[in-house]
Amino acid sequence: MKALEIQNLKFFYMGREEPAIDIEHLSIEDGETVLITGRSGGGKSTLVNCITGIIPHVFHGEFEGKVSVYGHNTVETPLSKLSTEVGIVLQNPETQVLNYTVEEEVAFGPENLCLESDDISERVRESVEITGTSQLMERETYTLSGGELQRIAIAAVLSMRPKLLILDEPTSNIDPEGTAKVFDIIRKLKEEKTLIVVEHKVERMLPFVDRIIVIDGGKILLDIKSSELSHYVEKMVEIGIEVPIHYIYARQNGIDSEDMETIREKLREINMIPAPPKRAGESRAVMQAAVSVSTKSGKKLVDGEIELQEKQILAIMGRNGAGKSTFLKGLMGFLDIDLNCEMQITLDGRDISREHIIKRGKEIAFVPQNFDLTLICKSVELEVAYSLKKRKVKNYMERVEKLMDMFSLSGLRYRDPLSLSLGQRRRVAMASAMASGVRVIMLDEPTSGQDYFHKQVLGKELTRIKESGYSIIIVTHDSRFVYRFADRVVVFNEGRKVLDGTPESVFRESMQYSILPPSDFLLRSDEHELVNP
Amino acid sequence: MNMNWLILNAVSWLLFFFGAAFPVLILLKAIGLTGFMKVTRYEKHNTFYYRMNPSVKIILGIMVMVVASVTIWWIGAIMTVIILSTYLTLKDGKRKFITGMFLTMMTVIGTTWAFAPYTPYVILQEAFHSNQLTTLWVWPSYFTVMGYQPALTTQGLIYGFQISMRFAAVSLMSLVLVMTSTPSQVLRSLNKVGIPTSITFSLVVAMRTIPRIFEYIDTSVKIQFMKGLGSNAPSFLRPFYMLAGAFSGIVPVIVFLVRGAKDTAISADTRAFRAYSKRTYMHPMTIGKVDKMALSAVVLIVLLTVIVVMMGFGKGISYNG
Questions:
Q1: Which residues of B touch A57 (CB under 8 A)?
Q2: Cα B79 to the chain's mean position, in Å?
Q3: B279 contacts in A (CB within 8 Å)?
Q4: Among residues B151, B72, B164, which one has the least CA distance to residue B109?
C-alpha cells in the first residue's frame, strides 16, 4: 500500500503569485525511509505541512491537486483523523512541547483521542520505551536539555501511533550526543514505520535512508536512491546542499568508492589529499577570562578559563550541560541571581572583572542565540546607531554607514529589522552589537537551525570580521563549521575545560566528549590517530 | 525663590517618586525578572498544595477574595500572613517565601501610595468617623492638577494600607495555583465546570508562556545595557532604565513568541487537539484527603466570615475599628 501519493499539488500562500510548492507526482511506499533535503525556504516545510494536513486545515491559501496519506485525502479527512495516520516532529522542541511535565506531554495526544486511562498509560509507556526516555517521566519539560526535549517530542507524536512519521529537521537545535540519540530512534523506527526525515545533515542520514528527495524553489529537483548519491554530488553542491566531503573528492578524482578510508588511501596515492583550512597563527592575547560559577548550595557548575588571541576565531564546544553557555553568561554578567559567580577577566591587560555590563559592553559584544530579542528599533539604521547614540558618540553616522556597508545592510536601512530574513536579522544584530567599538564578539549558537548555505555565509562573514581586526568567540555544536572557520577550539566537559588547541589537535581526542570529528577532518587524518572513547 | 519653597518642592517630588519608584525598585532589585519567572512557573514537589486538586485551589482562591473584600482589613492581613507562611512548604520554599514577601511589600506600598494622596477627605472622615485629619505633609498647590488632595494625612496612609490588604492575600493565593498546578491540571478542572477546551487551552499556553516572557525580556534588557542603555546616567537610576529596557523589549519578545506560536498550533492540531468536545485523562482527577481538609477549611472560613460580618467587622470601606 502507498503511504503517500501526491498528484498535481500546488499551494499558494495568501497574496503570493508563485506557488510555494509545485509537485506533479510523488509517491512513497509503506515502510520506506525517505530523506527530504534542500536549502531553507525551498518548500520542504510547505510540503510536509501538505502531507500532515496542516495545509489546508490550519494554514490557508490556494490549494490545488490531491494528497493522500494511506488512502485518506488530506483535504477531506479531518485533522484529528489524519493525526493517527501521520505524525510530525518539528525542528524546535521548545515551541512544540506544550505541557509542564513529561508524562502530560506524552499523554496529550491520546487524551485528545478520548482513550481510556489504561490505554493512554499503555501508549505513554510504549512511546517512552522506544525513545529511551522512561527515566525522564518524572521531570518537568523545562528542565530538560535540547536533546532530551526533542526525544520527548518524538515520544509525544509516537503515542498517537501514526503509520507515517515525519521528522522536520529534528536535530538542528541539539548537541551531538542528543543528535546521536535521535538517530538511534530513527534507526529503530525504520523497521516499524514509514519515515520522512527533513534534514540538512545528509552525511548523518545516509546510513538510514532508502531515498533522497531534493526540493528547491518548491519543486522536486532530485529523487534518487541513497546508493546513487555519489553520482549526483555536483548537482547537490550546486543547489547548496551539504554532502560528505569525501564524496566530492572521490567524484573529482574519479574514485569509485563511498568508503572514507578507501577514498583517503586513493587520494594519498595520487597525492591529492586536500590541504587543511588556513588558520590564524599564534598572536597577542586580547582577553583572558577565568570563570567559576556555583549554586547557592556550593555545587560547582563551571570552573574554566580561556584565552582569546587577536584576530582569532575561538570555538567553544561540548555536550549540552557541559557549561559552555554558563561560562559565556558568567563572562558577560548575564547569570541568574541565584548563582554565585567569581571571575577574572583581563582585556588587553586591564582587569574588567568588576565592571558593570554597561561598561563591559563597550568592549565586548554578545549576540545571543535568540538574537531577535535584541532588535528593538524601528529601522535597521536606528538599530545599528542605537549603541552610539546611547553612548553619546559624536558624528556617529559615519560609523553607522561603515558598519552597514560591512554587513551589506545599506539597502535595508529603513526596513523594520524584525521584518527581515533570518540571515539579514542576524547581520543587523551583529552590526548593532559591534557599533560601540568593541574588539571582542561573542556569539552563542550562531549555526543553530541554519542550513549549509547560510552556515557558509556566516563563516565567511566571521572570517571577514576577524580579518578586519576583531577577535571572536563562538559557542557551537557544529564540528564541520568549526573545522572550516575556527582557529582554535576549547572543549568543555562537566564544567571544566578539557581540550584546547587547533581544530586538528582537538578533533583527534574530541570523540571521548561526544564531539564527532567532521568528514573534512577525517579525510585528512589517519583513523589510528583518533582517540576513541 | 526662598529656601522653604525649594524644600517643599524637592521633598514633594521625592515623595511622589517614592510611590512610583519603590515598588519598581523592589520588583527589579530584590526579585529580578528571573525571580518573577520562578513564581510564575510550576515545579514538581509533594507537599499539600501539590497534592491538592486544582479545582479546590481555585475555590480557595475565590474564597480568599470574597473574605478579603467583605471583611475588615486585618482579616485580610491575617490571611496574607497565613498564606505567605505556607509558601515555606513549596519547593525551594525559603526563596519563594522571600519573593512572596517582597511581592506583598510591593503590593502594600504601591496600593497605599495609589490611594493615600488621592482619597478625598470626606471619605476619610466617613471611614474614620472623625472630622479631624492629621496632616503629615502639605503638597505644593499645583499637585492638585494630578488629582492630589491638598495634604497627605495619616488617615490617608492608613486607609491606603487597609485597602492593600484586600489585594495582598488574593495575589499570593493566585500564585499558589500557578506554582503548584500544571496548566494541564488547571485545564482539566476548568473543563469539568464546562469551560470549552479551546478557551482553557489558551490559558494553558499562556501559563506556559509567561515564565518565558520574563526570561526573554531579561535577555533583551541585558543586551540593551551592553549596548549602552543608561551609560551616561548615575547608577541609582539603573532600575528605571531597566524598566524602560523592558518596555522596549516587549515588541521583539512578542514577535519572537508569535513566530514560535505557529509550531505550538501545529503541535497541538497534529495531536488531535479539539478532535472531540471533551478529553479523557491518564490520571483522572480525584478528591483526596488533602482536598477534603481544604474544603472543610473553606466551609469554616465561610462560617467565620458570616460570624465576623454579623459582629460588625464587615464594612464596605475600611475603617479604624
A1: 269
A2: 15
A3: 111-112, 114
A4: B164
- Chain B residue with Cα closest to A118: B282
CB proximity B275 to A under 8 Å: yes
Q: What is the separation, in whole angstroms, between the first and last Cα of chain A?
A: 44
Residue B206 resides in a domain? yes
- Select from A478, A467, A472, A389 the least CA-distant residue to A430: A472
Question: Which of A95, A367, A420, A421 to mutate to test binding with chain B, by most B CBs within 10 Å of its CB?
Answer: A95
Residue B68 within a domain: yes
Q: Are residues B308 and B227 in the same domain?
A: no
Task: For A186-220, write each residue's pLDDT tens digit.
Answer: 988 998 899 999 988 788 788 889 999 999 989 99
Each residue's pLDDT tens digit, A98-107? 888 899 999 9
Assess if residue B3 is contained within a domain: no
pLDDT in tens, B90-114: 998 988 999 899 999 989 999 999 9
Task: Measure A299 CA to nearest chain B CA, in Å.
Answer: 16
Looking at the partner chain, which of B229, B270, B282 has a beta carbon nearest the beta carbon of A83?
Answer: B270
- Asked if residue A475 lies in contact with residue A174, where contact means CB atoms within 8 angstroms, the answer is no
pLDDT digit string (tens) for A1-50? 899 999 999 999 988 889 999 999 999 999 999 999 988 778 998 999 99
Q: Specify the number of domains making up chain B.
A: 2
Give pLDDT tens digits for B43-59: 888 899 999 998 899 99
Range of the domain at B261: 197-276
Residues B47 and B84 in one domain: yes
**Residue spans per domain, chain A:** 2-85+164-243, 93-161, 366-437
Question: What are the residues whose beta carbons fall under 8 Å from the beta carbon of A349, sequence distance 6 or more?
Answer: none
Residue B268 makes CB contacts below 8 A (sequence gap 6+) with: A98, A108, B201
- Same domain for B29 and B178? yes
State the nearest Cα–Cα gap between A512 and chain B, in angstroms. 33
CB < 8 Å to B93, chain A: none
Task: Give yes or no for residue B24 having a pLDDT over 80.
Answer: no
Same domain, B265 and B216: yes
Residue showing cell 472560613: B301
State the Cα angle at A76 between A113 and A14, rounded to 5°. 105
B96 and B201 share one domain: no
Within 8 A by CB and 6+ apart from A480, the residues are A242, A518, A519, A520
Q: What is the ipTM of this complex?
A: 0.81
Cβ-proximal residues to B233 (8 Å cutoff; 6+ apart), any chain: B241
The mean predicted confidence, pLDDT, of chain A is 89
**DSSP assigned state of A51:** H
Q: Would you state the pLDDT for residue A89?
A: 93
Closest residue by Cα to residue A405 from A434, A378, A441: A434
Contact A417, A375 (CB under 8 A): yes
Same domain for B202 and B141? no
B101 and B177 share one domain: yes
Fold of A2-85+164-243: Rossmann fold (3.40.50)
- Same domain, yes or no: B306 and B207: no
Q: Which ranges in A63-219 belong to alpha helices (H)? A: 79-82, 93-96, 102-112, 117-130, 146-158, 176-190, 202-205
Q: What is the pLDDT of residue A5?
A: 96
Q: How many CB pairs under 8 A join A and B?
A: 215
List the one residue out of A530, A484, A489, A492 whose CA is nearest residue A511: A530
pLDDT, tens digit, 9 for 90 and up, residues B6-18: 888 999 998 888 8
